[in-house]
Amino acid sequence: MTNKVERMQFKYQYIYDKLRNLLENGRYHAGDRLPTEVELASRFNVSRPTVTRALNALQEEGIIVRKTGSGSFVNNLHSYKNKFNNRIFGLLVPGLGKGEIFEPICTQIAANAEKNQCSLLWSGSEIRTTEAAKSLVDVTQRYIAHHIAGVFFEPLELSPSFDQINRKIISMFQDAGIPIVLIDSDYLPFPERSNLDLVGIDNFRAAYMATRHYLRHGEKRIDFLARPYSAYTISIRLRGYRTALIDYGIIPQAEWIHLVNPEELEYITSRFDHPEAPPFNMICANDETASALLGACESVGISVPEHLRIVGFDDVHYAQMLRVPLTTIHQSVQQIGNLALETLLWRIEHPDAPARTINAETRMIIRESCGMTGKAEISPFYS
Questions:
Q1: What sections of 274-370 are H helices per DSSP?
Q2: Which pTM value belongs to this model?
Q3: CATH architecture of 87-202+334-361
Q4: Residues 6+ apart with CB under 8 A from 112
Q5: CB 146 within 8 A of CB 176
Q6: Which fold has domain 2-81?
Q7: What does the pLDDT look like over 164-184, one tens digit per residue?
């Protein structure tokens, strides 16, 4: 019995998909009459009740109108799309599984979407190769085929080849007339700004705060570590870092900035394994990088925070559970998720409005890794 039901459901879905594709590809136009149930049953070699179920589903979604004694007619497809697609959004987030920050953001988007009677299509995983990144183009095509009402997109990072893929994905959605809300980062390098809404944090201010934390304790040298080809948000954080140093009368030096993977132990040892020197002060581009640096230091015998002090970004859930609890910039993933959905809903209602940048709240969380818990701050040179 179960297999029979499953076969019926498959046939109904197949007919539904075929008819919907014909309608959306222009085979039938508004006001056109569809073939009769008998004709469709014969064409697809199924029973008439199976055809009836598919037609009823199309009618419930506003795609067709069924008139007793007259047949089934194509509804106004523009009205259908506005009505139906406003309930389906796409999530295209390659950062899922990376850094522990995007999964709770997406979970919050999903929770709010359900409250607003919207549905979500999910796609996202950690992308490390260009070939894997190209699979996101296929996902984009599927989203477009589903006529989603809008999409949340986190641009790819950590490879120079990803820029072209980001641009292709954006172009595909824009050509299809699908609104896009960027999560965390623009896909264009600072100081360029795309014409898309962006939800994230004020990265300049957050980095300024992290740098100022060291400066207010009298430190004169502060280093910055980021992985090569990181998201464009990192370049903005670098500007906040540099500005804070300059405001305190310190000229940042090129050798203080490290664009390297923290797992490169030879580099870490050569730069920071100097027990006789004063502790180094490090700002890491995010908590994932900070966590990897902590692991590298432990493996080569560099003591944190005695020889190397570390501050991160994000305040991921494991930040306080590391061997040395991590000082970090907290960003509210719940608020980012809420703002992202609100922004997409707003954009659908205001398609011609200028692009907006919406920032969630941030604050600094002081833990042991910075080596300054309980230490009094000195008077700042600049506030």
A1: 287-300, 333-349
A2: 0.74
A3: 3-Layer(aba) Sandwich (3.40)
A4: 337, 338, 341
A5: no
A6: Arc Repressor Mutant, subunit A (1.10.10)
A7: 999 999 999 999 889 999 999
